[in-house]
Amino acid sequence: MSPDKINRIIIADSQFLVVEALKKLIGEDNQYLLAGVATTQHGLYQIIDTVDGGLLITDFDGIDFNGIEDLKQIVQKYPQISILILTNIITKAEFSGLTKLGIRNIIYKTADRDELFSAIEAALKGKKYYSDEILDLFLDQGATKFSADAQKHLTALEIEIVKLIAGGLTTKEIASKRNISYHTVNTHRKNIFKKVEVSNTSELIMHAIKAGWIDNIEYYI
Q1: Quick check: is 42 in a domain?
Q2: What confidence category does residue 220 fall into, taking pLDDT thresholds of 50, 70 and 90?
Q3: Cα–Cα distances in Å, from 137 out to 104, 120, 132, 217?
Q4: What does the pLDDT look like over 103-147, one tens digit per residue?
Q5: How far apart, in whole angstroms, are the C-alpha atoms of residue 34 and residue 57?
């Protein structure tokens, strides 16, 4: 693989064992190049300024971030950098805050090698990835409970639209794929949200996973 095709990865974490494990795993795969390791926010900015694109793997509790707000600065200043959160624990409020920032790649530090690289690949492709444990946590604690009758009330087209939404397609892209108008798709979306009793796409997708419409193992949206 030529150097310009190698994905550069930055690690920002102060936990020695975590950092050493990541360095070893990344070093063993020739698709990736470790661009640097930061244990402070200042050090992180120094590394990011030298990297054109790539992936930041970080624990927002692992270095001297002032909560999620400091991650917001990175998202806004360095839009070319993808972010994967690798954490020991996460609250519903933190999950919501990260999602609002557009950070939708989150796994636990208990992840095995395969899950880590699945999350890395998804993040670099601009797709979402949540570990099964995190999905289970928020399905149980957070979102409106799924109604067993919901699927009966959705039409076959509406279920297909849910799957396309889960596939990361925009309303415009769904309209083009299904050869129907943007307005029609938008109307279906509103009806789906109302029938399933959810208020946003993340909740809809969580319900779709629980309902079995999509497979959470393949949750790369």
Answers
A1: yes
A2: very low
A3: 15, 21, 8, 15
A4: 989 999 888 899 999 999 999 988 888 887 777 666 554 444 444
A5: 11
Total tally of structural domains belonging to the chain: 2
Same domain assignment for residues 178 and 121: no
> Between the CA of residue 54 and those of 10, 19, 78, 140, what are the distances in Å?
8, 18, 10, 34
For residue range 169-185, list pLDDT tens digits in order.
Answer: 899 999 999 888 888 89
Domain that holds residue 176: 150-218
One DSSP character per residue, 93-148 reads: HHHHHHHHTT--EEEETT--HHHHHHHHHHHHTT--EE-HHHHHHHHHHTSPPPPT
pLDDT on residue 79: 92
As a whole number of Å, the CA-based R_g of the chain is 19
- Judge if 164 and 64 occupy the same domain: no
Of 91 and 19, the one with more pLDDT: 19
Where residue 162 sits, what CATH number does that domain have?
Answer: 1.10.10.10
- Cα–Cα distance for residue pair 74/24, rounded to 1 Å: 26
Token pair for 114: 């395969």
If you ran DSSP here, which 8-state letter would residue 53 be given? S
Same domain, 195 and 127: no
